[in-house]
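Any chance you'd type out a single protein's sequence alongside its tokenized fold?
>
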Amino acid sequence: MTNKELLINKALKEQLLFTSEDAWELSGLISFSEIREMIRRNYDMNEEILREFSDASKGFLGKLNKISTKKRIKKYYKRIKRNKISYKEDGKIILAEGDSWFQFPLLIRDIIDWLNKRPTNGIYSIAYGGDWLTNIIYEADYISELPIHDPDVLLISGGGNDLVGGNRLAVMVDRENQEAKRTKEDLSTIDDLSSEDKSYILEVQSFIRPEFHAFINILKVMYDKMFSGIKLSGKYENMRILIQGYDYPFPRWPQKNPMKFFQYMENRLVGSGKWLKRPLSIKGIPEKEHRSILMAMIFEFNEMFKEIAKKHENVYLIDCRGNAPDDKDWIDELHLRNKKYRQIAAAYQLMIDRSIEGTSLWRNVKESKILRVVDTFSL
């Protein structure tokens, strides 16, 4: 058995022993198609089903994605033509790739919508609502766009749909006791969690299956391979890369009150409940533990992103956690209300225009590679 095969098996079968160093080594040995095969094995699905679930260009949502993308690209070229953004002192060329936090094609103003309100931002967005990171990396549209647009900033949002698409979340949880990933000692040195959040995360460890930890391992390999490939090209040394790991959601069934028409229509479009609430209910997880389980999972997402940001010089994490602490901050179980996306976009803008450089906040960000959205409210 080759070293690559040993590392793949370790990531999938000895999940808690798979280290960051293992991930960095494996990303240098493995192809994107082999990473896709790891996802397929972890979910125990065939390639046809994986392709069906991960394709964000089909159906009604796919049509909306195409319409929204065409409109955004048209705006981008208009700004290039009329304002010559790439030549303005405060102008920035931005390439955005990702999921519905970057493109919700109807009813919600997402992060890119808010960033597009800055006239000197030239955003070429190829994000699709519902897209899987597995699909984004496998198709690699961003690779062909990088040399064309030579962006100042690359924005990436992905991984959430890989976890929750097609009831996949049910694979990650069980009522049977699982080997705990985190202990009280593990969390004692993490200062961006409240004591209350730590207790929530610890109390649900036994519900989380090893398949979730394998999933995090695969994501780490995917992101490292993506960013290592960009670095190896030697063409984008000054390009800043911004990633994000979502906020703690509220699993819930759709809001059915027609009097709240906007939320009623959005919930019907998205199918709120089928992404988080339904798979947790399928496995008979006690309802009182639903949000804590998602908190534990989003915590692991962000811990993984921290490791990625620390390894790669120009990569920074926009930490969205704590920005939407109330269920009223969410329009459904996956997406925030407009004002919350606006606050996140404001944090992105600080990193895009580099306006915080030289401040005490920047010194912290430069050292930790993390900008917490809630830390920007006082600026």
About this structure: The chain has one domain: 3-376. The chain is about 50% helix and 10% strand. The mean pLDDT is 90.
